[in-house]
Prior knowledge:
CATH class of one domain in chain A: Mainly Alpha
Helix content of chain A: 55-70%
Distance between the termini of chain B: 55 Å
Structural class of chain A: mainly alpha
Number of helices of chain A: 9
Number of strands of chain B: 2
Distance between the termini of chain A: 55 Å
Oligomer: heterodimer
Order of helices and strands of chain A: HHHHEEHHHHH
Order of helices and strands of chain B: HHHHHHEEHHHHHHHH
CATH superfamily of one domain in chain A: RNA polymerase sigma factor, region 2, helix turn helix motif
Structural class of chain B: mainly alpha
Low-confidence stretches of chain A: 1-20, 120-147
Helix content of chain B: 55-70%
Number of strands of chain A: 2
Strand order of the largest sheet of chain A: 1-2
Shape of chain B: flat
Radius of gyration of chain A: 22 Å
Mean pLDDT of chain A: 76
Number of helices of chain B: 14
Strand content of chain A: under 5%
Low-confidence stretches of chain B: none
Amino acid sequence: MTTATTTEGSGRGKAGQAGLSTAEERAAARAPEMELIRQAQAGSRSAFDALVRQYEHQVLRLALHLTGSEHDAEDIYQEAFLKAFRYIGNFRFECSFYTWIYRIVTNLCLDQLRRKKTRREDRAVLVDSSGDEIDVLASVSDERSYSNPSRELDRKVLGARIQAALGKLTPRERMVFELKHYQGLRLRTIGEMLSTTEETAKNTLFRATKKLRTQLAELRS
Amino acid sequence: MNCELAHERIVTAAYGELPDEQIHELERHLRTCAECGTERERLLALKVLADANPVIEPDANLVARSRQRLEEALDALPPKRWYEWLAQRMMNNFAALQAAPIGACLLLIVGAGAGVLGGYEVTQSQTARFEGQPKTSNRRPVVLEGAEIASISSIARIPNSEVVEVTYNQIVPKQMEGTLDDPEIRKLLMVASQNSDSPTVRFDSVDLLVEECRARHSCQATGIRDALMVLLRYDQNEGVRAKALEGLQPFVAEDVQVRNAVLEALLNDNDPKIRTSAISILEPVEADTSVRQVLHSVANSDENPHIRTVSRQVLSRVPQFQ
Lengths: 221, 322
């Protein structure tokens, strides 16, 4: 069997052949998953459980990072897989199961983000060593008396500022940035998951980075 | 390349999505444009800053808890009824056919051909039968008193004669009596709750279904709970929606779907009485932050001052919520 990876310097022909066998190998690797999906569509609970095990970490990772809450991530996990169970009969193998399940999860996360947007954001607060509250959304004056600010506190403050800046994006912008920057997906895949085009996903990413740069300009200075 | 295009390509390149030939073009532009060079530096700095909010792997306890909860929910789902299996099978077969267009076309051609041939044969045999009969046909159907004609399926003229054949569908009013335990009665009530034009009929049917749910007579297995959620979300009549909400009250604590339907009603229903009732039936639910989030939103932004006040009062009992 031809190896799946191409090395630098290989000719275009070889690369083409290797690319074809990569596609073939991908198809072959997906065959067991397709069989599992068919069994799940026929009503096999154990097949569905096997599919859940394959994707549960990714689902939780995404939901946890977006919502920042284990409870919310659990709720999204629950709803996503229940929906998948209910509608697996509608899966037509037109895209990968990975894209299909992620589409469900991203829609749920978008709903969650939209719900959060309708209420005033809870202000992120930390408590310093003297018991005073620090509002990390306000600019922190150099004159404020911390007693030995630790690197951990700085990191948490910075993380909270990033989260606040991410919170200012629209739900769609936040989702595209999350999927691209944090989850490392390709723009074409992101477009499929959000039922849009690669070009639209690219434009959304551009808008998101522009807004984030404006929000975080003071941090860089 | 102008700077506006360069700014867009800087973002795409930073995330590894720019084709090779465009990278080369961009690099050429950046060598000559200091402003765009700064723009790229800013974007790279943003990427570093954004990593201060790292992605955390879910810990084993969270995974185990989530999986356990999912398994319980899946175990609690009612088994599919035979007609649901059949419909699903048919849909899957149809989908398989869609994916095989040549097969689908062949099937269509064969089916159409068989239909035409069969129709021709039937017509020929009917012509042969009618040739020996008097011109006035005895085949007038008996129309029942009070039975409406619902629709006409087909009209066909018998060749070489003045006889016309009309196929029609009739609505025949019927009556049925039974208790709420009777599955046929429950089925009819569910149809009435969603398909009747009269709000009074819908209200009466929902009232009876709610009574059935309150008595906890297999409310979930028969789909009554789902029907009540649909009514709460979509019925045009506020009396019907209020009754559906009343019927869902016992299940708010145990069923996430019911809770979500009530929260949606609290956010979106245009009747203030329904929104007020929704608040009152939201019992303290452990580990559901959605309830608190929605109450916050309603307390801040509902157009009705009484509802805002009630929401704040409920929120003041925050220790009961998580």
